[in-house]
From TrEMBL:
<keyword id="KW-0472">Membrane</keyword>
<dbReference type="GO" id="GO:0000026">
    <property type="term" value="F:alpha-1,2-mannosyltransferase activity"/>
</dbReference>
<feature type="transmembrane region" description="Helical">
    <location>
        <begin position="398"/>
        <end position="421"/>
    </location>
</feature>
<dbReference type="Pfam" id="PF03901">
    <property type="entry name" value="Glyco_transf_22"/>
</dbReference>
<protein>
    <recommendedName>
        <fullName>Mannosyltransferase</fullName>
        <ecNumber>2.4.1.-</ecNumber>
    </recommendedName>
</protein>
<keyword id="KW-0812">Transmembrane</keyword>
<keyword id="KW-0732">Signal</keyword>
<feature type="transmembrane region" description="Helical">
    <location>
        <begin position="229"/>
        <end position="255"/>
    </location>
</feature>
<feature type="transmembrane region" description="Helical">
    <location>
        <begin position="267"/>
        <end position="287"/>
    </location>
</feature>
<dbReference type="GO" id="GO:0006506">
    <property type="term" value="P:GPI anchor biosynthetic process"/>
</dbReference>
<keyword id="KW-0256">Endoplasmic reticulum</keyword>
<keyword id="KW-0808">Transferase</keyword>
<feature type="transmembrane region" description="Helical">
    <location>
        <begin position="433"/>
        <end position="452"/>
    </location>
</feature>
<feature type="transmembrane region" description="Helical">
    <location>
        <begin position="328"/>
        <end position="348"/>
    </location>
</feature>
<comment type="function">
    <text>Mannosyltransferase involved in glycosylphosphatidylinositol-anchor biosynthesis. Transfers the third mannose to Man2-GlcN-acyl-PI during GPI precursor assembly.</text>
</comment>
<keyword id="KW-1133">Transmembrane helix</keyword>
<dbReference type="GO" id="GO:0005789">
    <property type="term" value="C:endoplasmic reticulum membrane"/>
</dbReference>
Length: 614
């Protein structure tokens, strides 16, 4: 039977996703999942540099051929959308709106499964009585609501990591003893009579009592080391972000097994983990080989270029406090106060804890996870390039740490629940203030992020695909790189087009390297006068350009670029003036959210479409 918690999560995720238009968050949502899958199935689409063979050193060693000169992305996650697109292709439904909606359905399923396994993980860390609180925290998390349903690679990584933790052999959880102190007195005489008729407190369900008693104790998540390693390794093959987390937990498991069962048992644990890891890694390698016809190891290539060679800092550098000062506060909105109390209660030895924190319930599994998460975030903080979403796989675990503090002052009413709001709070074990704060605080930012912010960047493609601005024979996007989806949303086979790129300097001199984006924005008017309709490029690259010399039928630009002025040969002109001079007229404008909240200056001013006048 399908668990009710999963059905509830699936229903809420559907209501929080499908009714809203798709907005733009980051390029990886499209170019690291949907676009490669579309290219594989339909034969057209754009593959970024991560999906192509990288320059190979002349030494030609095994490492250089398969790692340094390999590809940085694997096909496990895009392979899911390959299946979706293949079904649409076979049924002929790829010409319908399902080409856009179907990937969103996959995102809803991933999000709901993550919510459900957060529910299960809480039972393993704190006991079954904490599960419903964890489900509520996961469903009301603004970060989850905005990112989990998207096709970002961090979404399946979060799901797989949470599932792996559910099955990982953590220390045994000792059920708390039942207590009558948490029963709220009732004024109803009939309720008092019912209470008096109970012969044993264990007959009260822990859902009502907010306490898990031994006679009702049930295991929602059983230990399964091979399955846990398979899930964790699959997550690492998608993105190796959580490698430090699993190193910490793995070493701890071996030490615990050695102390409790001896060296033979610990060697058995190592053997099981190694076999499971190797088998999963081999399966992942085969999947990549199946899709590309080439042997390569994307996880190793990712680590080599992004960490060892520090290529990722080309897209921006962050300091070592980034996750502490930005990622964690943003991810844990608005439960900061309760989370920090619960986390410290699990992390710091009870002997030096303040009396208030010492009273909070912290189990041995939660204390281990607190240390593991701290170690993992500490290691990730040394990365020169960080983003909020890099910690997303840890968010389900982080949310659970807030539960002891949130539920500490809750006193359930066993009988006489007549109002829906009270019933829901009874289920979640939350008092009024945190309950309504978590329920209401995310509403305004969620509505803004999913109705307005970045909406035009996706809407413009839907408008072009629908033919509302005329037949799109060719399209050029003079915007910051990867600002709009491409063929995964356009799905126009006969369309020619290109957009500004921003590939990092791999295998070339970084001091002289310049991207198409930097060329254009340095002097956009000069570019339109002297280079357009060719892409901006360095002189030695011009001979390799494949763009048509004909003017594209449609141009996409942000409003900020239109007002840029230059004086050339004594004549001042703006980008919009040059577009008119080239024979274009503005045919569409889309508001893209508040300029103040745009992550790049070049993405301000809304989005416009210019059409060539025939």
């Amino acid at each position: 039977m399908i668990p009710k918690a999963f059905i509830l999560a699936l229903l809420i995720r559907t209501l929080l996703t499908l009714p809203f238009p798709q907005t733009y968050f980051q390029p990886d949502e499209f170019y690291q999942a949907l676009e490669p899958a579309h290219n594989y199935v339909f034969g057209y689409g754009y593959l970024t540099w991560e999906w192509r063979d990288l320059p190979t050193p002349l030494t030609g060693s095994w490492w250089d051929l398969y790692v340094v000169g390999g590809r940085m992305r694997g096909w496990i996650w895009p392979g899911v959308f390959v299946g979706v697109y293949r079904v649409l292709q076979i049924t002929g439904l790829d010409k319908t709106e399902l080409i856009v909606i179907s990937p969103r359905l996959i995102g809803i399923l991933v999000a709901a499964l993550t919510d459900y396994h957060t529910y299960k993980l809480a039972s393993k860390l704190l006991g079954p009585g904490a599960s419903s609180s964890a489900l509520f925290l996961s469903l009301t998390s603004l970060f989850n609501a905005h990112l989990l349903p998207r096709s970002l690679s961090t979404s399946p990584e979060t799901l797989l990591t949470t599932m792996a933790l559910c099955y990982f052999p953590l220390p045994s959880l000792i059920p708390p003893k039942p207590s009558s102190d948490n029963l709220k007195p009732t004024a109803f005489e009939k309720d008092k009579k019912q209470i008096r008729t109970l012969q044993n407190q264990a007959k009260l369900d822990y859902i009502a009592m907010d306490r898990d008693v031994p006679s009702l104790y049930r295991v929602i998540c059983t230990d399964n080391l091979p399955l846990s390693i398979i899930l964790a390794t699959t997550a690492l093959c998608i993105r190796p972000t959580t490698i430090s987390l699993w190193m910490f937990l793995g070493i701890d498991l071996v030490i615990r097994t050695l102390r409790s069962s001896g060296i033979i048992a610990s060697l058995r644990v190592i053997a099981i983990a190694a076999i499971s890891f190797i088998a999963t890694f081999a399966a992942s390698t085969y999947i990549d080989y199946h899709f590309t016809g080439r042997l390569y190891f994307p996880a190793l290539t990712f680590i080599h270029h992004n960490i060892i060679r520090n290529v990722s800092s080309f897209y921006g550098s962050t300091n070592h406090l980034y996750h502490l000062t930005q990622s964690i506060p943003i991810m844990l909105f608005p439960i900061w106060l309760w989370w920090i109390q619960g986390f410290l209660a699990s992390l710091i030895p009870s002997s030096i804890l303040p009396a208030r924190l010492r009273q909070l319930h912290s189990s041995e599994p939660s204390r281990l996870m607190a240390r593991a998460v701290t170690f993992s975030i500490g290691i990730l903080s040394f990365s020169p390039h960080s983003e909020w979403r890099f910690l997303h796989p840890l968010l389900p675990t982080l949310l659970i740490f807030a539960i002891p503090s949130l539920t500490a002052s809750y006193r359930p009413t066993v009988f006489g629940i007549y109002r829906l709001s009270d019933s829901i709070r009874q289920y979640t074990r939350l008092t009024k203030i945190p309950f309504y704060l978590m329920l209401l605080a995310p509403i305004v930012p969620f509505l803004y992020l999913n109705l307005f912010h970045g909406k035009a960047q996706v809407e413009v493609i839907n408008v072009l695909r629908g033919g509302q601005l005329g037949e799109v024979g060719s399209l050029v996007a003079l915007t910051p790189c990867h600002s709009i989806p491409w063929q995964s949303h356009l799905h126009l086979k006969d369309m020619e087009g290109w957009f500004l790129t921003c590939e990092p300097p791999i295998g070339i001199n970084s001091e002289t390297h310049r991207t198409q984006q930097s060329f254009f924005y340095q002097s956009p008017v000069s570019y339109l006068q002297e280079v357009f309709p060719y892409p901006p490029a360095q002189l030695h690259e011009i001979a390799n350009l494949t763009a048509s010399p004909a003017k594209p039928t449609h141009l996409v630009l942000f409003g900020e670029a239109l007002n840029r002025m230059e004086t050339i040969k004594g004549v001042s002109s703006s980008v919009s003036d040059e577009l008119v001079h080239l024979g274009y007229e503005r045919v569409w404008y889309g508001w893209n959210g508040l300029d103040l909240l745009q992550d790049e200056e070049e993405r301000k001013g809304g989005l416009t479409v210019w059409r060539l006048i025939t």
